[in-house]
Design brief:
By secondary structure, this protein is an alpha+beta fold. It contains 16 helices and five strands. Helix content is 56%, strand content 8%. The protein is globular, with a radius of gyration of 21 Å.
Length: 367
């Protein structure tokens, strides 16, 4: 499924990853500025396109429309992403490298950009450096410590300015601790979000991350309770992620039919689903198909037809996920495992070749 929703129908100039880059102050000092259109991607509702963003904190995003002199505000709780068209070439190179999964190049570019004379550019570079190191750690765990250091540095320097991506960085930092299996720190760093000082939506985001930490520890009952609560979120992305987490707990508890039922509505093609597709919808949907496949595989008990259906679910995940991404690689890996169980070595070999070709550095592409 590669259905394009309103959040995905962006102009080709739009960059696919979260990145906040302020307009350099110097442009206002060197004569008439050339103002380029920015996009504010909202959590709910249509985006604000072709505007000029003049400021962004975790409280609000300020923007100006063409032909209107007064500035307008949108609560940061309703902003999923900001896509800018004016940025330094170094940041642009780093962003492109990160989007392509070229983590070494991304890290190099963003590290260079942290010395930018524009303080906001430097802050954004520090945030993106942490994300790049975290992405690199998915293929080389030795970069986890570098990711933690970069994200901690950004949070410490960005908090006094209430910089827009500080809550995002806190979640990324917690996730890095989860991957390092330091669950105490993973929960501890969420303290700034759980108190509500950075916005009500981040309280739900922190609870979601806590549940994911419990899931990683196989504390299914405790995680399930939190996922159940977050499923009622008005934030579509949080609600769907919580539903998937809830189904993962059911799989962990070997409640396979229950997991299939939990995901059934999400994986439908009803009008309501299409009208409420949140950002990151494709990857969320791909993850759901993987969990669906795990539920069917777990309940197959050697039944060849049921195993074939599980393989179909994994292929569906691969068709929905970002080619070459981590979810994509996991889907191919799990489908390959099914074919190996069924003795279909030719199909398993085809998927091995795809993994080698499209996901050469993925943790899922291991002997």
């Amino acid at each position: 499924m590669q259905r394009v929703n309103v959040h995905q129908r962006r102009r080709l100039r739009a960059v696919p990853h979260l990145l906040f880059v302020a307009i350099p102050l110097g442009v206002f000092l060197l004569g008439a500025p050339v103002l380029r259109a920015d996009d504010i991607i909202r959590t709910t509702g249509d985006p604000y396109e072709s505007v000029t963003v003049t400021g962004a904190t975790w409280e609000s995003v300020t923007y100006r429309k063409e032909g209107i002199s007064s500035r307008q505000n949108v609560p940061a709780d309703d902003v999923e992403d900001i896509r800018w068209t004016s940025e330094s070439s170094t940041l642009s190179r780093g962003r492109g490298a990160l989007a392509a999964g070229e983590f070494s190049r991304a890290v190099s570019a963003f590290r260079a950009a942290t010395t930018d004379l524009n303080a906001l550019h430097a802050l954004n570079a520090q945030f993106m450096l942490g994300l790049s190191e975290s992405g690199w750690a998915s293929t080389d765990p030795s970069h986890l410590s570098a990711a933690v250091t970069a994200l901690q540095t950004y949070v410490q320097t960005g908090k006094p300015a209430k910089h827009f991506y500080v809550p995002h960085a806190i979640l990324a930092l917690s996730d890095a601790h989860i991957r390092a299996r330091d669950f105490s720190k993973a929960t501890q760093v969420l303290g700034d979000l759980t108190g509500g000082q950075m916005g009500r939506k981040w309280v739900e985001a922190a609870n979601l991350k806590k549940a994911q930490a419990l899931l990683a520890q196989e504390k299914y009952a405790e995680a399930r309770d939190i996922f159940r609560d977050v499923q009622g979120s008005t934030n579509p992305g949080f609600a769907l992620e919580a539903r998937i987490g809830y189904a993962q707990c059911q799989v962990g508890q070997k409640q396979f039919p229950g997991a299939v039922e939990t995901l059934g509505e999400f994986l439908g093609e009803g009008r309501n689903e299409k009208n409420t597709s949140p950002p990151r919808y494709g990857e969320l949907r791909a993850r759901a198909w993987i969990v669906y496949g795990q539920a069917e595989e777990g309940g197959a008990l050697g039944d060849r037809e049921k195993l074939q259906w599980a393989a179909i679910r994994y292929h569906r995940a691969a068709s929905v996920g970002v080619a070459g991404g981590d979810v994509f690689a996991e889907a191919l890996f799990r489908a390959k495992g099914i074919y190996q169980q069924l003795g279909q070595t030719d199909r398993a070999e085809i998927l091995t070749q795809k993994l080698n070709q499209l996901c050469p550095s993925s943790a899922w592409n291991r002997p």
